[in-house]
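Marked as duplicate of an earlier ticket. Keeping the data here for the record.
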Amino acid sequence: MTAKALPPVVDTETWQRHLGELRAREKAATRELDAIAAQRRRCRWSRCPTTPWKARRARSAWPRSSTASPS
C-alpha cells in the first residue's frame, strides 16, 4: 500500500470526533432502514393465484424448465 492510500494520522481528539460523527450517521441510517422495514410490514397483502405446494392440482400454473423431463 502506498503512503497516499493510507489515511492521515491524527490526534486522539480528532479521531474520536470523526468516529462520533460516523456513528451518528450510522445510527440515522439504521433508523431510516427500520422505518422503511416497518412501512413494508404494514403494506397490504394480496392472494397469490396458486402456490407451489398446491401445484399438484394445477400443474399448468407453474412453467416447467426446458431441461425437465415430462412426467
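See parent ticket for discussion. Helices lie at 12-41.
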